[in-house]
Write a structure and sequence with these properties.
mainly alpha, 14 helices, two-stranded antiparallel sheet, 76% helix
């Protein structure tokens, strides 16, 4: 009989219980179409981002730069729109430039990690600072507004059937990611590389190409998130995407995505993003000070990662052993 993975259910159950409690405490304001629409709208940016970053998590990687890259893509889009005097041509060029920036950033990450064997943590930590610095240069460390044209503002604000466009974009990208991971050979290779890299290489899988593609897709969805965020706020600044890497990682681990690689689904990650939105919404409805929100999220991440390590104890020990071996080799 197959053993039931209780920790896979424990993580979402914690926040589901919170939702039930919140519904009892705030029945008039929580379970309404307007509030749920606002929740989905508020999580759409990092919901879009997690649908691409999950590829990086599944291969056992990490990308700490997505918050800064999100901000940089937003800045590039707005700067080009302003340069072309808020015309529709500027919007198209701005979006294309932002998407290209995200793709190139992912490509650089993937190539450096695979060719030069630089740990993903170190390279993305470095590029996080670089992207932030570029954003500060492009904005002059000022807030740049972008209230027009409608072609741009509609991306983040226009509603279709009472729900804003970003929600539909989030679902579309989630569907694409789900199809790639669940219905294609590429998806099976991604899980294989994250589940057992050496075995995947022995079976003929080109793990380096898979790693590069994972980071490229992560960069692409991050760029989409940056464009949507700039449209939603109708402005940009250097710190526009600050903190979004935390939201994405939190959503992933709550949704059952293993940070050790090889386990997780797009639906789970998206579920985690929605639950994080409900958590933020609940904290606001309960009038909990914003200064305490970070503490709550940090506890949620700690609990989720702890449960993940318990569920994948053998994989965690293997990863720790490999890390220790690399450390001793470096000292030698």
């Amino acid at each position: 009989m197959k053993k039931i993975s209780w920790s896979a259910y424990t993580k979402p159950m914690i926040l589901v219980l919170f939702m039930v409690i919140l519904t009892v405490l705030r029945p008039a304001s929580f379970l309404t179409v307007g509030n749920l629409s606002n929740v989905l709208w508020s999580v759409s940016v990092y919901g879009i981002m997690v649908c691409g970053t999950i590829f990086v998590f599944l291969i056992g990687g990490i990308d700490l730069s997505i918050g800064s890259l999100c901000g940089l893509c937003a800045v590039i889009a707005v700067r080009i729109i302003r340069f072309f005097d808020y015309t529709n041509t500027g919007v198209i060029l701005g979006i294309m430039a932002a998407l290209l920036t995200g793709i190139m950033a992912g490509l650089v990450h993937g190539v450096i990690i695979t060719k030069f064997r630089v740990p993903a943590f170190l390279i993305t930590f470095a590029t996080q600072i670089i992207f932030l610095g570029l954003s500060m240069i492009l904005t002059g460390n000022k807030i740049l507004s972008c209230l027009q044209p409608e072609l741009f503002t509609a991306i983040g604000m226009k509603k279709i059937l009472r729900f804003p466009i970003p929600i539909y974009l989030m679902l579309l990208i989630a569907l694409i990611s789900w199809f790639i991971l669940g219905k294609t050979v590429l998806g099976r290779y991604v899980y294989a590389v994250g589940g057992n890299g050496p075995a995947a290489r022995l079976s003929g899988i080109q793990d380096r190409k898979i790693t590069v593609l994972a980071y490229v897709f992560s960069g692409f969805t991050t760029a989409v998130g940056g464009i949507v965020l700039a449209s939603m706020t109708q402005q940009c600044m250097a710190f526009t995407g600050s903190g979004y890497e935390t939201e994405v990682i939190t959503a992933a681990v709550i949704g059952g995505v293993s940070l050790l690689g090889g386990e997780g689904t797009v639906s789970g990650a998206l579920f985690g993003a929605v639950l994080m939105g409900l958590l933020n919404n609940g904290l606001n409805l309960l009038s909990i000070p914003s200064t305490e929100h970070g503490l709550v999220k940090g506890i949620v991440i700690l609990v989720a990662v702890g449960l993940d390590a318990m569920e994948n104890k053998e994989k965690f020990q293997n990863w720790l052993g490999q890390f220790q071996w690399k450390k001793e080799k470096t000292k030698g």
